[in-house]
Amino acid sequence: MDFYFGNPHPYPNIHQYHAHNSVVSMTPSSPEIALSDYLMLDDYVDHQDSRSSQSTESSEKATFCDPTHGFSTGATSKNNNMKCKNGINENKRGVGPRIAFRTKSELEIMDDGYKWRKYGKKSVKSNPNLRNYYKCSSGGCSVKKRVERDRDDSSYVITTYEGVHNHESPFTTYYSPISFVHSDTTFK
DNA sequence: CGTATTTGACCCGCGC
DNA sequence: GCGCGGGTCAAATACG
After folding, report:
1. Does residue A119 register a pLDDT over 90?
2. Given A17, A69, A108, A146, which residue has the most CB atoms within 10 angstroms?
3. What are the boundaries of each domain within chain A?
4. CA→C1' distance for A119 and B6 (Å)
5. Which residues lie near nucleic chain B, judged by CB under 7 A?
6. Predicted local distance difference test score (pLDDT) of residue A43
7. Residue A178 has pLDDT above 90, yes or no
């Protein structure tokens, strides 16, 4: 079950959720993957609101975090799990917005339309599971993503994207971008 | 044999 | 200044 974004926008299925902090539910067409997710950025720590029970109730929740909109995910300045200056969702290198979401999935490798090269793996304190680091392999594109399993419910995978792609997903060449305006995530 | 992944070392910011 | 935690590098290794 591949899961990808086929949109020129770096976060195609995110930007259509209303800018910041909005929570949107959607229902992917495929029953075999259930999303029950949300995004959290810098202040992510304990997200007990996870309803791990709705396994078949495909839904996705997202909280958009963008420097221009500011951000808040509920857990403000509660901790410093992730370093965040000024409470702004901007990493230290100013690479760009960071976006994260949880996906209920057995696999951690999801085909989101981009080609990723793994460059690191690390065990982090806040999570007993390993965190994997990927970089977009397209030349000149420095978008990164982290993938780790939910510390509380290992059936979920937390994916964090960082930065903005300076190119379109190779996948988009097969589809008209317009068609994605309303299609959100596509499952196949 | 070229490319992708693995994995320990290294680096850097931050708090004490 | 030092140690810790997290992120990245890069040599070695695996894989096609």
Report:
1. yes
2. A17
3. 94-172
4. 9
5. A 80, 83, 85, 92, 116-122, 137
6. 41
7. no
A118/C16 CA-to-C1' distance in Å: 17
Planar angle of CA A9, A181, A97, nearest 5 degrees: 30
Find the nucleotide nearest A92 (Cα to C1′).
Answer: B13
pLDDT at A118 over 90: yes
Query: A142-154: b or e for each residue (b if 16 or more CB lie within 10 Å)?
Result: ebbbbbbbbbeee
Buried b (16+ CB within 10 A) or exposed e, A33-59: bbbbbbbbbbbbeebeebeeeeeeebb
Matching CATH number, A94-172, of 2.20.25.80, 1.20.1250.20, 3.10.110.10, 3.40.50.300: 2.20.25.80
- Give nucleotides in strand C with any atom < 7 A to a protein C-beta: 4-10
